[in-house]
Records
---
Amino acid sequence: MALIISNSYYMVANMINEKQALESFMARCREHGLRITAQRTAIYKALIDDRSHPSADMVYRKIRAAFPNISFDTVNRTLSTFVDIGVLKVTESHNRQKRFDANTENHHHLSCVRCGRIVDFESREFDELKIPDGIRDRYEVLGKRVVIECICDACGSNSRKGGRR
């Protein structure tokens, strides 16, 4: 099985560049009647610039330097709105904290159960997984994404040094 693991946010196949992502974001906001404000743009830009799949708290801490009066609630509500209009996706996290992904293209995730790191990867085999008939018959399937829980290379190297595999 060939996996393409992306160490850089924009190395994911078919990812659009930052300028195109911002243009698409603005168009989507207009489609949904959302004003394009400096705060909303900064929140979105913080996500497309960050490949770590940040939480609302991480985004809040990052943009607070530029917007010292912004509240955590504003950032959190804005992220939820962005998910609702389809410019972000909520990503799985082993600690149940919501993490956000600006890469809305089809891809899958490796999720480290030790440090919480989430890494994008692509796999044609996973893309082509068949949805079981019992699910397709009862539910409207909107998408599919595979999450592999793992111990990442950084955390794993610590345990391998001690002889554990």
---
Amino acid sequence: MKTQKAIAFSLVEVLAAITIIGVVVFLAVPNIIQIREDSEENLATARAASLDVAISSFIQANGRASANTLWSGTNNAGRYNLLLPYLGFAEGSLSAFEPNGYDFTLPASISPPTKTAVSASTN
């Protein structure tokens, strides 16, 4: 009579595999979260820079005096709407253009031009 030998993992082997997977996850998850936060920060910086370039283009296209008059007569959302033609592939509103967790404040005056302020949102 032939006996069959069972082929399976022992409890110790299964627990060792689960422990190794747990250690890898423990080490990887914080790094993945940090990469995501860094990418959001980089996106916010890049979008603020594109707003600054759009402001320069807006001034060049409209002339400094006319651009300053249009700019000073509106709020942050209205200023973004003035910049939309100079932003490639931009969202329809400033709040949609802002990355998650960041707020942009366009300069109150474009004479002299200043950079767009980027801040972490409080909500």
---
Amino acid sequence: MRLRSSRLRTAQEVARRVLVLSCVASAHQFPAGTFNDWLRRWHLWNELSALETELLTAAEPSEQQRINATWRSEALQVLLWALGRWERLLPMSELVALDDLMELLRDPWPGTVAFLMSQQLRDVRELEDEFAQVIAARDRLRGEDVGPDGSVAGVVLERYETLKWMLNGDGAAWDEVSLET
């Protein structure tokens, strides 16, 4: 499915988002502020959304912030798949394990520049085909938490927002992507 105003994000934009989301998704496992200096050093701090900044600067994140952060593992899976670092997306009925994703990111931390510069995106048609599948799954959910095919609403939503951001359908920043088709 081709979005009307589609301008595919660059591989470097996606890679930068991967590094930011890896910090956000795992923030609840570390003391407050653990990633802040690293994000600033690599000029990634300004890429945080307002919600992400609140999470990473909270002395004690709220339960809702922790839940939201864990759901970002689903978005991280999509981004890693789009960069070819994750072979295939799990079915929309399964939740991805953050530890499995972080295993793929062991190397980038000391070589951040090399990581950012060496990434390539899958063909745009693959991204658009996946987006079409996600839209179909979203339509089947009809407001339910689990669809008739077992699709989990949270997984579908994270994939929808992530793919729409990558395909830049409405030009919105991360966390500001419209949920409208």
---
Amino acid sequence: MGRFDGPHFESVGEAQVSIWAGVCSLDDLPEDYLDADFAAPDDAPWSPFSEEFGFGCFDEDLAEGNVSSTAEPVPIAELLQEMSYSETYRDAVVAAAKAKNVSQTAFVFMIFDFAYDPAVTGIERTDHMQFLGVFTYEFE
């Protein structure tokens, strides 16, 4: 799948954030997993992450991540605490993570104004990350 191929999950007009949690150790996460290769041809994937989850590019200016200070798994609420607008969606994410048996992780990644849909791609979990869901956030 190329970087500009669909599906496209931009969330227009709604404040939504798609959130993933790591399910592997940081040592097992490829170094360039989340990095876009801007020099690659159009038919190349945007990043290993987007390729694994079955979509093309996303606005990197709207993406955030956080890594445990010890590189060991911690409660997901702890990692979310430092993320933008997290007080408006943190409890819902913690509940979703618990339901998916990912209450602790070493890293989280999110894309704002993006509504990833695993029903479209058929991919909710890889060897590296678990999709937790799309959550509404509020500007403060």
